[in-house]
Amino acid sequence: MLLKEVIEALVFASQKPLTPKEITAALRSAVDDSDEESVRALAEATEAEVGAFFEQLQFEYRNEHRAFQLVEGADGWSIVTKPDYALWVRQLYPESKPTRLSGPALETLAIIAYRQPVTRADIEVVRGVAVDGVMQNLLERGLVRIAGRADVPGRPLLYETTQVFMQHFGLRSLDELPNVDELRKVRLPSSAPPTTGELFTPDALHPEPGETPAGNPVEAAPEASSELPPVGEPALTDPNAESVSAETPDHVADPHP
Prior knowledge:
By secondary structure, the chain is α+β, with helices and mostly antiparallel strands. It has helices at about 5-15, 20-30, 35-40, 45-65, 85-90, 105-115, 120-125, 130-140, 165-170, 180-185, and strands at about 70-75, 75-80, 120, 145-150, 155-160. It has two domains: about 5-90, Arc Repressor Mutant, subunit A (Orthogonal Bundle), CATH 1.10.10; about 95-255, Winged helix-like DNA-binding domain superfamily/Winged helix DNA-binding domain (Arc Repressor Mutant, subunit A), CATH 1.10.10.10.
C-alpha cells in the first residue's frame, strides 16, 4: 500500500481540510487497529514526506485534467471541484444561494485585513462614517472576530479576520494578500489626533444606507479600491455552508466528487 494513496483517501473522505500533522497522526493511530507490516511502515512517515505527496497529487490532478483539484488553504489541504464546473455543481444545492457583501462591508473588511488588529474607531476614521452595522454583519458571518483590547485609555476592542476569511479567499497566510507589503506601510489616520505625515483616507468610500458620518473628514490621500481583491481560488469544503462572497463563488467544494 502506497503512502500517496492513503493520503489521497484520507483527504477525499474528510469533511474538512487536513494538515500533514493530522495525516501523520491518523497513520500512527491506524497501527492500533492492524498488525500488518505495511501499516506499521506507513506510521513512520514524517510531515515533510506527507507534504511532498500533497504537492505530487496536486501536480497529477492538474496534468490529468480532472474535474477536481487539491488545494491548500490556511487550515490544510482539501479536494474541491474546479471552477469550470460550478454551474452544474450548484444545481445539486439549490438551497445554498450565495449572499452578497455590500461595498461598505468589503471596504471595512479590507481595512481590517490589512491593518489588523484594529479598533472600530480607527476604522471609522479611515472610512469617515460609523461602522456599527457593518461590523455586526461581518461578525455574524464569521469573517471578523474580537482579538482583545487595545492598550490605550478606554481599552477599546480590537478586531481581526478569521479562518473563515482565509478559507473563503483561498489564503494560506495574510502575506498572500495583494500588495500587502506596500499597503501595510501606508500611513493610516487613527482615532487619536494625527501627527505630521501623509494620511491615507480613501475619498471614494461612501456610507451604506443608514450609516452616519464619524466625525470631521480628514485630508484625503491616494484613493483606495472599494473591493478587497480576490486572492487565489476559494476552497469551500462544505457545500451547504452559506457563501459570503461579494460575487457568485466560482465553485463549490464537494468532498465526494
